């Protein structure tokens, strides 16, 4: 019963991080971009921001799915008693799988701007990095809790 409760708490923590990143995108990134992006002629700023929000949401969903896959993989498959560096390779591959597709997708489908599109690409990457790294560093199950880079320094429980 304790294990189920612990794993449920970790899962809820992951969902809290995902929700926080989504709220950050809606309330901070959209405002930041509305002040710094100048779309090309023929594109209105609200249209461009809607496209950004759609692409960022897709990126957040992809990173969340990869994070939940890491969680499920570490609960169901990666079971061991001592930390093993071999699982770092899997974590890194999933890291690139969580970050690169949303960033590339955002780059390809974000409308052209005169100035400021670099901010959007940065936010695409940062959202994915935040979701995958924070959820895996803080909320991985005990068997792989020290696998993410730096987790042994930030995770003390």
Plain-language structure description:
- With 157 residues, this protein is mainly alpha-helical.
- The protein has one domain.
- It contains five helices and two strands, in the order H-E-H-H-E-H-H.
- It has a two-stranded antiparallel sheet.
- Helix 1 (2-36) runs antiparallel to helix 4 and helix 3 (86-109) packs antiparallel against helix 4 (117-139).
- It is elongated, with a radius of gyration of 18 Å.
- The protein starts with a helix and ends with a helix.
- The mean pLDDT is 89.
Shape category: elongated
Q: Total number of β-strand segments?
A: 2
Order of the strands making up the biggest sheet: 1-2
Report the end-to-end length measured between terminal Cα atoms: 19 Å
Give the structural class. Answer: mainly alpha
The overall pLDDT average reads: 89
Portion of residues in helices? over 70%
Radius of gyration: 18 Å
* N-to-C series of helices and strands: HEHHEHH
SS field, number of helical segments: 5
Task: Count up the domains.
Answer: 1
How big a fraction of the residues is strand?
under 5%
Sketch the major β-sheet.
2 strands, antiparallel
Which residue ranges are poorly predicted, with pLDDT under 50 across at least 5 consecutive positions? none
List keywords for this structure.
mainly alpha; 2 strands; 75% helix; 5 helices; two-stranded antiparallel sheet; 157 residues
Gist?
The chain is built from five helices and two strands, in the order αβααβαα.
How do the helices and strands line up, and which of them pair or pack?
Blueprint: H1 2-36, E1 38-39, H2 45-76, H3 86-109, E2 113-115, H4 117-139, H5 151-154
Antiparallel strand pairs: 1-2
Helix pairs in contact: 1-2, 1-4, 2-3, 2-4, 3-4
